[in-house]
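User: Hello, can you help with two protein structures?

Assistant: Certainly.
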Amino acid sequence: MSMFKNLQKTLKVHHFIALLGIVVLAYVIMQYSGRKGMTSDGFTDVPLNRPADIQMGGAHPAQPAEPAGQNEVYSSVTGINTTSYGLPPSCSKGNVVDPSELLPKDVNSQWAQLNPAGGADFNNVNLLKAGYHVGIDTIGSSLRNANLQVRSEPPNPTTKVSPWLNTTIEPDLMRTPLELGCGNQ
């Protein structure tokens, strides 16, 4: 009896609640594990012996399939005049368009009047100039990894390690330093 008294002194109410929680948690885990083991994934060859799986006596028995290529049963179709989809009933070629018929030949046609061919003056037409974009972000590494801070930083050092996998991002050497007393001002 003295051992029970000592146990009562050392164990408080929160110890009993924690012990009860551990027992309940162990019971829940055991129930969950037991249910997980009872379910079947359907990948095993378990013989079907339930009454719902056995075919009743009055129904037609199952027949094995014919070999491949011999077990097709086609339905009949009505209202189609041809056996090949997309072909006319006579199975002859339709009219083929000649490419020369697509372009206008008559100078007096409506197309020729709206779109005259040849003899046009392109001097005052606003076309792009060939050298317009030269020098404007045409370099491959032109600020692709731009430093957007107000204070300038030294560029990240790069070392060629092999003929392959070298960086193509070059440091921005045109950035002027903003610090007082540093660099050319």
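That covers the first. Now for the second protein you mentioned:
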Amino acid sequence: MEHKSYFSYPITQHFPFRWFTPVAVIGGIVFIALFTLMNFASSSYELIVQNSLDPNTTVSREEKKVSESFRRLLTYHRNILQNCSVHSVEIDFDSLDRAGKQIGFCEWGALLRSYVSCKIDTPAGEVFFNMTQTYDYVPETVSFDSLGKFLGTGFLSRNKTTQASLRWGESLMSTFWGEVTLMLQD
């Protein structure tokens, strides 16, 4: 007794195995379910970046959420950066490759990027790591409404005693940006 299958060779001959149709259908359903589960698991979260001037405070707020074994991996946790050396400083001048808000403020822009290596002494030994910093006086995220409040005045609101290095560094970088872009326009 021959079984009729939905799958066949050429039109004249049916596929000979009786078990092939249910195995193919069930296997396809299982494959689709596993593929969907893997796709959902790999893309169903959103990474949220948090910036902080004091990472130890940020970490201590979430200490109950993070296990101790993970916290030990945070090399900067309550440690002092030592022997930092600047490897290079790059300045990228852009004109038309900038956002409309940036061009509306100034025809030219200068993006400053620096590469720094530092060392941290931990109980496990010395840890070396690299950092990349970027600075743009008119970032793409600034809105036209806050353009006058943001530009060149953000560093003035910093505390002169607790954030003196940030205030001084940002004021120098803002002055440098203004002078360089002014020279490019002339």
